[in-house]
Specification:
By secondary structure, the protein is mainly alpha-helical. 55% of the residues lie in helices and 5% in strands. The protein has a three-stranded antiparallel β-sheet. It is elongated and about 100 Å long. It starts with a helix and ends in a 25-residue tail after the last helix.
Length: 339
């Protein structure tokens, strides 16, 4: 790279030097700087390229190498790309859309160590947040949460899905946070449906629209519409919070109930409420029931029975009997505690 810059400095004043030689030297400086992980030098060389098409080709390499070597923070916050800045968003969006979500990649990578599958969803989320595009940031993490929800045990070679569910919960929370800080009347996103659908009461609360929708990761105010109409869903902040509550409950129960550790998707809220009641976690059961408008008569009956038993125990009248309700008797419960 240093020799290339020296050659350019010597060739630049020479009117007889062909433009092809100048371009070749500039590309060599860029390529050598990038291979040496000298990202500042590579960025300067990239922006010095005279041909916009060559810039775009080199930009794709630059974005990929920078992200794979843990320098995505510089890409999002330090480097400016002038007229090809929109290309950065398109490249990151394409990477996020096509990358495998498992194994789960860390949000931050050690600098200088190559990771072949960086978390482009997290990188694009940071890119949007730093530019105040909070609705786009919410969309990208909501999509990430949905893709994680479709992962099965077969996708992770039969291993536990606990790391995947944990990442899904974090993704929902990031999406909610980005949407929460914008004005209340704008706290919704348009999400294009995929092959996977939600079940039960979550799906019932959705509003479906048929419209020409923005491209992946873009909100309705962005340029670049899809060429034809597509089925989309309007997701409001409250609905997103309910999905987050389901994912969080699934995570808390997965350590005791094997079904939730190996099965993809969000469970039915009635199943989760029944299991929380069985485990004595009445706070979680009541919170989930209120979020979904589910009847809590059974939960309060069990809670009242246990309160009476405790009061009798304190009075010394009799010992507390075993839990009066067996898990098989609870409506809507599938599976059994892990042994």
């Amino acid at each position: 790279a240093a020799f290339g810059r020296l050659a350019l400095s010597c060739a630049a004043p020479d009117a007889h030097t062909s433009p092809e030689i100048i371009r070749a030297l500039q590309k060599a400086v860029f390529s050598n700087s990038l291979e040496a992980l000298l990202f500042d030098d590579a960025h300067v060389a990239l922006m010095a390229l005279p041909d916009i098409e060559i810039q775009r080709v080199c930009l794709r390499r630059f974005v990929t190498v920078v992200c794979e070597h843990g320098a995505a923070e510089d890409l999002c916050a330090r480097y400016a790309f002038g007229p090809i800045q929109p290309e950065v968003e398109e490249i990151l969006s394409f990477k996020a859309r096509t990358r495998p979500v498992v194994p789960v990649a860390p949000s931050q990578l050690p600098r200088g160590v190559r990771h072949p599958n960086p978390n482009y969803h997290a990188i694009l989320y940071a890119y949007y947040v730093l530019r105040g595009a909070h609705k786009k940031a919410s969309v990208i993490m909501y999509d990430y949460a949905h893709r994680l929800g479709a992962v099965t045990a077969a996708d992770v070679a039969g291993e536990s899905l606990l790391p995947v569910i944990t990442e899904q919960v974090k993704s929902y929370l990031a999406s909610i946070t980005a949407l929460y800080i914008i004005p209340e009347k704008e706290q919704w996103i348009i999400y294009r449906t995929s092959g996977t659908a939600l079940r039960g009461q979550v799906a019932k609360k959705r509003r479906t629209a048929y419209a020409q929708e923005p491209a992946y990761g873009q909100d309705d105010s962005s340029a670049g519409r899809t060429p034809s109409g597509s089925r989309s869903e309007i997701i409001r902040l409250g609905e997103m919070r309910r999905e987050y509550a389901l994912a969080l409950s699934k995570l808390s129960l997965a350590e005791r109930y094997r079904e939730y550790e190996v099965v993809a998707g969000l469970p039915d809220p009635s199943d989760l409420i029944a299991l929380h009641v069985h485990d004595g976690d009445f706070d979680s059961a009541i919170s989930l029931g209120r979020a979904f408008g589910t009847g809590l008569r059974h939960a309060f009956a069990v809670l009242a029975q246990r309160a009476v038993d405790l009061s009798l125990l304190e009075a010394g009248r009799r010992e507390v009997p075993p839990a009066p309700v067996q898990i098989e008797e609870m409506p809507g419960v599938r599976g059994s505690p892990a042994t």
